Amino acid sequence: MPDSTIRVRIAPSPTGPLHIGTARTALFNFLYARHVGGTFLFRLEDTDVARSTAEFERDIIDGLHWLGITWDEGPDTAGDMDHGPFAPYRQMARLAIYKEASDRLVAADLAYPCFCTPEELDADRKAQEAARQPPKYVGRCANLAPDERTARLAGTGRPPATRFRVRPGVVGWNDMIRDRIEIDTTNLGGDFVIVRGDGTPLYHFTVVVDDAAMEISHVIRGEDHVGNTPKHILLFEALGHAVPVFGHLPLILNPDGTKMSKRKSQTAIDDYRAEGFIREGLVNYLAYLGWSPGTEEDVLPLDEIIAKFDIDKVHKGGAKFDRGRLEWLNGQWIRRLEPNDLIDRLRPYLQAAVDDGRISRLPADDEVGPLLPVVQERLPTLAAVVDLVGFLWIDDLVVDPALVVPKRWDPATTHEALVAARDILAAHDTVTWEADELEPPLRELAETRGWKAGDLFMAIRVAVTGRTATPPLFDTLVALGRELTLARLESAAAVVGAPTVR
Fold it and tell me: What is the dihedral sign for C-alpha 177, 203, 33, 7?
């Protein structure tokens, strides 16, 4: 039965492009909300003013929409008005709300002003390191009398930060994914800052105030937040709010098992989009990073993933990112595209190849259409179309002389073969320029001359495409057409050079 009381959220910080981990977290929240009939909202945690930008906000929002991840509350476009009963959904527009909450905690002595200088805190840290102790706030300002606070304020000459009092004991919760987790508060590093001296609130505080105000029932986020959850539970309790249900997703790992990072892996969603991964393939793959439907099915559209999604089937262990698996799954989705849809999706990548000079011109749709039976089954990404058949739209093909000569041949044999192949193919007119018509006479040529057909075909392939790997050779010749094939064979023969007469 649909449960409208369930409310989940994604709350990225616009300090960088949409990360694949953020996209996966957004997807799992979206899937959970849609599966149970709950509400999914989008909130921007933009209090890091120095690093937050409108460009990153746009990248995140546009990237999630491109993936097909939509929300019920929040901003739909970068810089646009928020919609929903708990607007605004941008933290910098909610500063007054955080101020009221922090004032309540101070009034109840659940938080207090901290006048410690950076120099004092640094000295404390170094002393703890020297004593091989874990870093922890020493409590210098925790119990100051009013006159001591006045003196400290006069001595520092700047407004104090606000620290939250961490109670002793154990904080525990029943995690949706990891079962029971308990953490002793002695491991939290002591009382922590919730508001800076300049009045800007910190993440641990804002996330709790916002989740409470927006009635978030379930917080589903990455495993790296497990250590933050005790702080958040303590804040929920201190503010008098119900504690939401927490669930911590497995981390996305590099192939070597380390945490995924841009130093070792490609992490920006827009980079995958630029390479020609399509939304259907990428979403399908992200859904399987830490979850399984419990069946042997691999290729699932988004509506079926929503129908099958069960939070209880999310894995506890980290999910290794497998680029090969992603390409395979993306290729499966490319094969499912209708011809006109595929042509539309290929066009930007062909235009990009024109713009950067890899091909000479943008082919018309009626040139691309006949190629689809040859290329659609071979594309791991949309951008791969340029490597696969881009040679068709190059005006002046440059052939590497070393590449055109097969390993078992010398230049003289290669020249002889290209000239002979050109003469045989020239005997065909446009009517007989078909793959099954072109292949037999070239095989006969190889047999007559005592050549291996593979060597002859490789020499022809490189001569007409400039590459050693292409779609099937005779389909390639048909796509090139008679005149262009003959011209490129003549040109490649000239590049190899005529045999030396002795």
Answer: positive
